Amino acid sequence: MAISFQNALGIHEKALHVRTMRAEVLANNLVNADTPNFKARDIDFKSLLSSEMSSQSAGRGMVATNSRHIGGASQSYQPELLYRTPLQPSLDGNTVEEQVEMSRFSKNMMDFQASFQLLNSKFKGLSKAIKGDL
Amino acid sequence: MSLANVFDIAGMGMSAQSIRLNTTASNLANAQAASSNIDEVYRARHPVFETMRMDMMANNNGSMPTLADDASMGMRVTGIVESDAPLVRRYEPNHLKADEEGYVYYPNVNVVEEMADMISASRSFQVNVELMNSAKQMMQGLLRLGQ
């Protein structure tokens, strides 16, 4: 029986990817903390991951049972960037709250480490199964 | 790879903040540079920050999602403007550069404002360093995957 990486690794691979994307968005917020009129943004992790998982389970695209069927093109999902509502907007139109963004960035990093740890243990389990020793 | 973009973003932030620190240093150094001619007096300089927009679609080469192409990425300094605050005119007849009436013009540098700006710039720079370190840790972790 062949090992399907898609089944073996599960959600963690996708989660890791979404975490890196979120790190990028949050880093951008922090860098623009002094830019006038900059609006802080973020990705909704939950909705993005669920759409990722559903596109995975749907098998990407439609199944053609007849030669005249037109296969639907699998489209890559564009994560929706939302705007953050500031607790206290500043005078220059900037909505970045540095401390809040920093804590979110740190938390995102910890979540990344968690996903990484889980993914790593999946790989360890696989290699243990291949070698057969405990 | 999104993590590589964090390095770019933090790098742009660091260079912009160092330009800001540079202008602050220039303003503070020239704060007492008096002149007899109103056109030759040093004026306080401030950088203008702007969010940079990058076309992310070029990176979209697989099924993995990338950020929407209207996502703003990084920032830059679009220019340095001179302050149009009124100059300080002082009556100092003994000054070497005093004009016929005994007045000298001092730059419109607000030293207190500049000090606050300096602290803000160095803190923002530190945040960028922190970002880069975090991205580095995440990337190093990924390289150890499966070991």
From TrEMBL, chain B:
<dbReference type="GO" id="GO:0030694">
    <property type="term" value="C:bacterial-type flagellum basal body, rod"/>
</dbReference>
<dbReference type="Pfam" id="PF06429">
    <property type="entry name" value="Flg_bbr_C"/>
</dbReference>
<comment type="similarity">
    <text>Belongs to the flagella basal body rod proteins family.</text>
</comment>
<dbReference type="InterPro" id="IPR010930">
    <property type="entry name" value="Flg_bb/hook_C_dom"/>
</dbReference>
<dbReference type="InterPro" id="IPR001444">
    <property type="entry name" value="Flag_bb_rod_N"/>
</dbReference>
<dbReference type="InterPro" id="IPR006299">
    <property type="entry name" value="FlgC"/>
</dbReference>
<keyword id="KW-0969">Cilium</keyword>
<feature type="domain" description="Flagellar basal body rod protein N-terminal">
    <location>
        <begin position="8"/>
        <end position="31"/>
    </location>
</feature>
<keyword id="KW-0966">Cell projection</keyword>
<dbReference type="GO" id="GO:0071978">
    <property type="term" value="P:bacterial-type flagellum-dependent swarming motility"/>
</dbReference>
<keyword id="KW-0282">Flagellum</keyword>
<dbReference type="Pfam" id="PF00460">
    <property type="entry name" value="Flg_bb_rod"/>
</dbReference>
<feature type="domain" description="Flagellar basal-body/hook protein C-terminal">
    <location>
        <begin position="101"/>
        <end position="145"/>
    </location>
</feature>
<keyword id="KW-0975">Bacterial flagellum</keyword>
<comment type="subunit">
    <text>The basal body constitutes a major portion of the flagellar organelle and consists of four rings (L,P,S, and M) mounted on a central rod. The rod consists of about 26 subunits of FlgG in the distal portion, and FlgB, FlgC and FlgF are thought to build up the proximal portion of the rod with about 6 subunits each.</text>
</comment>
<protein>
    <recommendedName>
        <fullName>Flagellar basal-body rod protein FlgC</fullName>
    </recommendedName>
</protein>
